[in-house]
Write a structure and sequence with these properties.
This protein is mainly α and 448 residues long. It has helices spanning 16-35, 40-52, 56-69, 74-86, 90-103, 108-120, 124-137, 142-154, 158-171, 176-188, 192-205, 210-222, 226-239, 244-267, 272-284, 288-301, 306-318, 322-335, 340-352, 356-369, 374-386, 390-403, 408-420, 424-437.
């Protein structure tokens, strides 16, 4: 089970515009410090701002300066302890939490975070004692119940884990980790349906919770649902690509799916679906040529296999074989003319072939079938731009932005159109907006 601290991991919340605001706060505090270099609170506040950006060394330096100016500054010790913990300087973190507790014996957060740090050392009973003390001090401390529930799960005390996690969720129903940990407790008791429900909720609340994907993958694997396990292990690994154990589980699930497909084909060589499934597996792991070969077999066995045509088209597109991709998308459209994604994919292939008018026509059909697809409007606008139809492109970009108002690329592309039209004020406004939503656009010359 995972531990979740009372201080949220840096970067887990907030938009790029929020990052820029924090940078401004840091600059303002720097000015305050220049005017009054002996103000411990300004150093502490700037340290908190650095921490929120994940700049832990700067945070530690500022908190250290704060405690040198005010040796009784509880918040500075607490925040420095958190920064040490995030860079895995756990002994230094504990020393800071000890100091907080000496200065403020009823500081529940210090007990909680010290307990979480002891957990990192594997000192589970000491960790439980600290977190329990936090709960004694603050009886409605959701983070403490959630973390103690995780610790109880690690020690095999699943009933106690369930009780604490139930309480944490009642106090704070929007914390993904509580659901993930309760899902793990359910799974360890063999209650897979309840576990899956909790893990689904965890992922809904935090789509980047690798622990929840891993837990769900493990259950799928236990239930011999190898395809589902394969996808979830893959998602977990995308989030944490350095997890060797997850990579090995992904490989194991891949081999399990492959064996299932091979067994089906061996039992019935005319099973088109089995070839399609194996082709899809190959496509997922980047073996595009082998994927196409299996899609070929599926199509030869079933000339009305829409998914095989469309996925073979996507495989050809990946290889840059756009004419073959278009041919497959056309066949799929003939079989399923109401699927907007097929027209969208066809439009993308025509665009890559620089046949912009045909691309526009396909995006027109995609939009007619799904008028709420922001990506279709954006790509439609890109094709209009290539044709010099700037006013039409602006209409499409406006619609895309109304559907997806935080897509930095759409603002950047619209800014480019404004620039082509000589409307520099509109261009600058869009370039600035793109940079505020995604800092990578701040490095683009047009946005400077």
């Amino acid at each position: 089970m995972s531990a979740v601290t009372v201080k949220e991991a840096p970067g887990s919340k907030g938009s790029s515009s929020g990052v820029l605001k924090v940078r401004q706060i840091i600059a303002d505090l720097g000015s305050d410090i220049e005017r009054n270099p002996n103000n411990a609170h300004s150093y502490k506040d700037r340290g908190v701002a650095f921490f929120s950006l994940g700049e832990f060394e700067q945070a530690i330096a500022d908190h250290s300066k704060a405690v040198s100016l005010d040796p009784c500054h509880v918040e500075a010790y607490l925040c420095r302890g958190d920064a040490y913990r995030f860079i895995r300087e756990n002994r230094k973190a504990i020393t800071d939490y000890d100091q907080v507790i000496r200065l403020d014996p009823l500081n529940a957060t210090a007990y909680l975070n010290r307990g979480v740090t002891y957990d990192a050392f594997g000192e589970l009973h000491t960790a439980i004692a600290d977190v329990s003390r936090a709960i004694e001090i603050k009886t409605d401390f959701a983070a403490a119940y959630g973390n103690r529930g995780g610790l109880y799960g690690k020690t095999g005390q699943f009933q106690l884990a369930m009780e604490d996690l139930d309480r944490a969720i009642r106090l704070d129903p929007n914390q993904a980790a509580w659901y993930a940990n309760r899902g793990a407790a359910h799974a360890n008791r063999g209650h897979y349906r309840e576990a899956m429900a909790d893990l689904e909720r965890a992922i809904e609340l935090n789509p980047r919770d690798s622990y929840a994907y891993l837990g769900r993958a493990n259950i799928h694997f236990l239930l011999k649902e190898y395809w589902e396990a394969f996808f979830d292990y893959g998602r977990a690994l995308l989030i944490n690509p350095n997890e060797a154990a997850v990579a090995e589980r992904l490989r194991t699930s891949y081999l399990s799916v492959l064996k299932e497909c091979n067994d089906k084909i061996a039992q019935d060589p005319s099973n088109a679906s089995a070839y399609y499934e194996r082709g899809s597996l190959y496509k997922e792991v980047g073996e595009t040529d082998r994927a196409i070969a299996d899609y070929d077999k599926a199509i030869n066995l079933n000339r009305a296999f829409t998914a095989a045509f469309s996925d073979r088209g996507r495989a050809y597109y990946r290889l840059g074989q756009y004419e073959k991709a278009v041919a497959d998308f056309d066949r799929a459209i003939a079989l399923m003319p109401e699927d907007p994604l097929l027209y969208y994919d066809s439009g993308s292939a025509y665009g890559s072939m620089k046949d912009f008018r045909k691309a526009v026509a396909q995006y027109d059909r995609a939009i007619a079938l799904n008028p709420s697809d922001a990506a279709a409007y954006k790509d439609h606008a890109k094709m209009q731009t290539m044709l010099g139809e700037y006013q039409r492109a602006l209409v499409d970009f406006e619609r895309a932005i109304s559907l997806s108002p935080n897509d930095a690329q759409t603002y950047y592309l619209r800014g480019t159109v404004y620039k082509l039209m000589g409307e520099m004020q509109g261009a600058k406004a869009d370039f600035d907006r793109a940079a505020s939503l995604n800092p990578k656009f701040a490095a683009v010359p047009e946005t400077r």
